[in-house]
Structures are given as structure tokens and as C-alpha cells.
Design brief:
Layout lengths: L1 H14 L2 E5 L3 E6 L3 E5 L2 E5 L6 E8 L5 H11 L6 E2 L5 E7 L2 E10 L2 E8 L6 H9 L2 E2 L1
Antiparallel strand pairs: 1-2, 2-10, 3-4, 4-5, 5-9, 6-7, 7-8, 8-9
Length: 138
């Protein structure tokens, strides 16, 4: 009986920690204590106390070259040289107001995706990773 009560309590705790959130171009699970908003097609998700943040922009770019686009964003943000992983996702870092952020750029089927992650304390890596794994195109 104790095991059933413990399992029920854990399932309620786990299911209450994040909820599906629909945006104009995608959906993603957001932890219940994080704040999410969308403005002009850009989604911003912030941790409590603004300790960490994710911004996501998705645009159609059918004739773009991801290498050129990633370099242009990096130059505009005065970031590091973009590097591609084995799946063709480019990443680079930049610092603004003393805070380091990392951008991830991808282009698939004419859809450009730019994700910027800021977590200066490193305390929200698991929550950020969990959110990004639930990201689904609408």
C-alpha cells in the first residue's frame, strides 16, 4: 500500500512540473514555474528570477545556406566562429552585458530555427534540455 501511495504521489509531482504550450509555429513543454511569451514570431521562455532563458525563432528560408546564415548571425552578435555538428546544426557563443549565451541554428526543409540559450549559473541545464527535447513543429 505504501508503494502505491508513493507511486501516485510521484506521478502527481512529475506530471505537474511541466505543461504543453502551443505557440504559432511549434509546441513545447514548459516547466510550470517558468514564464513563456511570444512576440513577433519569437518565443522567449524565462526561469524564475530570470536566472536562465531560451529564445526561439522559426522562419521560412527556402533558398538560404545554413553556413552563411549562421555566420551572419554570429558576426552580428560578435560571437565565436559557428561550428556544425554531424547533423548540420551550427552553434556559436556570444557575450552580452557580461552574460554568455549559446545559439543553435538549423535549416531543414526550408525552415530555419534559431535557438538561443542563456544559463549563466548552469542550474537550469536539465530543464532547458527537457524543454528542447519536447519541441515539435506545428
Amino acid at each position: 500500500m505504501k508503494n502505491i501511495a508513493l507511486a501516485l504521489a510521484l506521478s502527481l509531482l512529475i506530471s505537474g512540473t511541466a505543461f504543453a504550450h502551443d505557440f504559432s509555429k511549434f509546441s513545447m513543454d514548459i516547466p510550470k514555474d517558468w514564464h513563456a511569451m511570444e512576440e513577433n514570431g519569437v518565443v522567449a521562455v524565462t526561469a524564475p528570477g530570470n536566472e536562465a532563458a531560451i529564445s526561439i525563432a522559426a522562419e521560412k528560408m527556402e533558398k538560404a545556406n545554413i553556413d552563411v546564415v549562421a555566420k551572419a548571425f554570429s558576426q552580428k552578435l560578435e560571437g565565436t566562429e559557428p561550428k556544425a555538428d554531424d547533423k548540420g546544426v551550427y552553434s556559436f557563443s556570444f557575450t552580452r552585458d557580461g552574460v554568455k549565451s549559446t545559439c543553435f541554428c538549423s535549416l531543414e526543409d526550408g525552415e530555419f530555427l534559431l535557438i538561443t540559450v542563456t544559463d549563466p549559473t548552469g542550474r537550469h541545464i536539465a530543464a532547458i534540455r527537457n524543454m528542447l527535447t519536447t519541441l515539435k513543429k506545428r
